[in-house]
Amino acid sequence: MQKDSLEALNRRLKNFARERDWEQFHSPKNLSMALIAECAELVEHFQWLSEAQSQALSIEKKEQVALELADILIYLVRIAERLDIDLLAAANQKVAINEQRYPAAKVYGDARRADEY
Q1: Which of 37, 40, 62, 109 is a good FRET partner for 46, with 20 to 30 A between their CA atoms?
Q2: In this structure, what are the phi and psi dihedrals at residue 18, rounded to the nearest 5 degrees?
Q3: Is the domain 6-85 a CATH 1.10.287.1080 member?
């Protein structure tokens, strides 16, 4: 198994929680609430920036964004583990659905919602 796989991260996070007796707090509800809080922290880094500014972050800002993204990934992995959901399988299933909902020939260069085509 690959050292940096989602499975390896999941095991590390599960061990981290168990060593601290935190699994009792890691319900899907609580983890979902923590996830949305981390998403809001990510958004704060981009609030009020122009499109160009958001793509040209300083090294320091990029490091801060990376840590917020890490928090988001950690909570996603924990929620998936608690609900026995294979994140990669779910993501691949969702991409397949989106490929059907948004055929490239129909939506190329247009970012409307599926029901607006």
Answers
A1: 109
A2: -65, -40
A3: yes
